Amino acid sequence: MTSYAEFYRRSIEQPDAFWAEQAKLIDWKTPAQTICDYSHPPFARWFVGGTTNLCHNAVDRHLKERADQSALIYVSTETDEEVIYTFRELHAEVQRMAASLLELGVRKGDRVLIYMPMIAEAAFAMLACARIGAIHSVVFGGFASGSLASRIEDAEPRVVVSADAGSRGGKVVAYKPLLDEAIRLSTHKPESVLLVDRKLSAMNLVAGRDHLWGAMRQKHLQAEVPCEWLDATHVSYTLYTSGTTGKPKGVQRDTGGYAVALAASMKHIFEGKPGETYFSTSDIGWVVGHSYIVYGPLIAGMATIMYEGLPTRPDAGIWWQLVEKYKVTRMFSAPTAVRVLKKQNLEFLKKYDLSSLKALYLAGEPLDEPTAQWISEGLGVPIIDNYWQTETGWPILTIANGVEKKPSRFGSPGVAMYGYDVKLIDDITGEELKGPDQKGVVTIEGPLPPGCMQTVWRDDDRFVKTYWTGAAGKLRYNTFDWGIRDKDGYFFILGRTDDVINVAGHRLGTREIEESISSHPNIAEVAVVGVADQLKGQVAMAFAVVKDASLLVDAAAHLKLEGEVMAVVDKSLGAVGRPARVRFVTVLPKTRSGKLLRRAIQAVCEGRDAGDLTTMEDPAALQQIKDLLAS
Ligand code: AMP
C-alpha cells in the first residue's frame, strides 16, 4: 500500500499525471488530449478531447462480466415492493426510458427535469438522460410547487418525468397536482410530462402534454438506444442548491470528470468491489443520491439499493434487515438518521447478521460524538465521517482507507482528499492560516478537481462572484464553512459562514424561507435563523413582524397566524422548509445601517451570549425575543 501522504502530494504537485492514472478506471471512446485545461480560471475543463458516457460506464460496460448480477435493488416499505434489476434488466429499462424520451423530442443538451419519489424509474430516467446526452435536473420530491416552479423556470426542461405520488410513513403525497401548479406558476412550459402511475393517487392528465410511462414502456419494450459518445466536458446534470440569496443555484456538472472522480472515490474512499452491495439511505433529490445511490456504485459494478420508506417503519430494524438480506458491504447515511435510530432500542441492530458490513459512511452535517459512539459500538465497523457539498460532488475531507488505513478521529471528518488543495483562510486579512488549531474559512485552491461543479447553470458570473476570491492565478474556492486543522492534518468543521442552515442534513437558505414567509399578507418583515437541535442538528426558527398587530389579540390568535404562515411555507417550499416555530414581535434587531442581526438572534435562541451589540439600533428588539423564548 502507498502512503496516503505520498498519494495526496502527487495529486497536488502532479495533477495531470495523477488524474491521467485515475482516468483509466473508466471506459473512454477516445482518450483525453489535455488532462486539465485551466487557461480560464476559475473554470476548469477536465479531460478535454476525451469522449465517454456515464450510462455506458454505469451499465453497459458491466454486461460482459456481470449481466446477470444485481444492479439496482428497489425496496419500498411504503408499497411493499422489492424488485431486483440485474445489469441486463437495468440496461433494457434504461433503453426503454431513453427511447421514450427521444420520442418526446428530447435531444442531446436538452434538459429533463425529474421530480420523482424513490422509485426505480427515477434511476432509469437519470441514466437514460446520461445515455442520450440530455441534461437531467432532479428536484427533491419533498419540495412543493414554489420551489419546483423556480427550478422549471431556470432549467427550462423540454420534458418533466414525474409520478402520480410518493408515500411517506404510509401517507400518500400526491406529486401530480404540485407539478401542475408549478408548471402553471412557471413562465417556461415543458412540452411533455412523462408520468409513472403507481396507482397511489388519481391523476388528471393534460391531453397532448401528459404521457404514461406504462404505455410508453410497452411501446419501446425492445428498444435499442446506443450510448451517445459525449465530450468529457458535456454537461451531465444540474442540481439546485441553496445559498445566501433567495434564488437557488443550479450546480452544473460535467461528464468525464464526474465519471473519473466517482470511480476513483469508489476505489480509494469507499473501497467498493464489483459484485458487492452498496446501500445509501439518501434520496435521489440530493447530491449523495446522484453520486452514491445511482452513479458511483454502478460505475464500480456494485449493486445499489434504492429504498423508499422511513428508517423506523415497519420497525427500526428495517435498514439492518436489508443489510443482512443483500449482504451490504458499504453503507452511507446521515447523522440525523442515526440519531433517529438511536432513540430506539439497540436490539433492532442486534437482531440481524451484519457481518457483511465493512464500514458506515456518514455525511451532510456535523457528526456528534455520542451518535458516532453509539453506532460504532452497535455495528462494530469503522464509522467514516465525510465532508463535502453539492458543489463538489464527492468528499473533500474524509479518510481514504483504500489508499492507506488511517484511524478516524471523533469530531473530525478527516484529512484533505487527493485533488483538493484545502487552505484555511483568515476571514479578515485573507491570509492563509498555516499553523495548527487556527480557525479560518475552508477554501480550495483552484482548479477544483474532477467531479466538482463546472459553473452555475447559465450564470458564469454568479459562479465567479459567489465562490471565488483571491488574486488572479491564485483563485480560491470558498466552501462557506469554518474549519480548524490540527497538527496531523485532520480538519474540524465549525459551521457555515453564510446564511445557510442544515436541517436534518438538508441544506436550506434562510433567505428562501424568509421570502416564503413574507408572501403571507400579514407579514411585514421576518428573520429566520438556524438553532441547534438535538435530533435534527439544526431547526429553523422564524421571528416575524406583523402588519396588523391588532389581530394578535390573544395566544389563540398567535397560534392561528403561526399555523397560517407555516401553511404558506408548506405550499411554496414544502415541509422541509417549515420552521419549527414562528414567533411574532413588533421589531427585529438590526444594526444602525439596517442589517438584520441574525447571529445575535441565533445566539439568544441557543442560550449563548449575543456578542458585541454596540452597532444595534434598538436593544429592546433583542429583549423582546428573549422574553418570548422565556415565556
Ligand atoms: P449539501 O450541499 O447539501 O451537501 O450541504 C453541504 C454543507 O453541509 C457543507 O457546506 C457543510 O456545511 C455541511 N456538511 C456536509 N458534510 C458535513 C460533515 N461531514 N461535517 C460537517 N458539516 C458537513
Compute the gyration radius: what is it? 24 Å
Helix content: 25-40%
As a percent range, the share of strand residues is 25-35%
> Treating each run of at least 4 consecutive H or I residues as one helix, how many helices?
20
The number of strands is 33
Main sheet record: 8 strands, mixed
Query: What would you call the structural class?
Result: alpha/beta
What shape does the CA trace take? globular
- Quick check: average pLDDT? 95
- In the predicted model, the low-confidence regions spanning at least 5 consecutive residues are none
Strand order of the largest sheet: 12-11-8-6-7-14-15-25
Distance between the termini: 60 Å
List keywords for this structure.
globular; 631 residues; 31% helix; eight-stranded mixed β-sheet; alpha/beta; binds adenosine monophosphate; 26% strand; seven-stranded mixed β-sheet
Describe it for me?
This protein has 20 helices and 33 strands. Helix 6 links the parallel strand 6 and strand 7 (135-138). The chain is an alpha/beta fold and 631 residues long. 54% of the residues are buried. The model has no long low-confidence stretch (mean pLDDT 95). The strands form nine sheets. Strands 12-11-8-6-7-14-15-25 form an eight-stranded mixed β-sheet, sandwiched between helices. A seven-stranded mixed β-sheet has the order 5-4-17-16-18-19-20, with helices on both faces. Strands 23, 24, 26, 27 and 28 form a five-stranded antiparallel β-sheet that branches. Adenosine monophosphate binds at residues 241, 287, 363-366, 385-387, 389-390, 413, 479, 481, 493, 496, 502, 507.
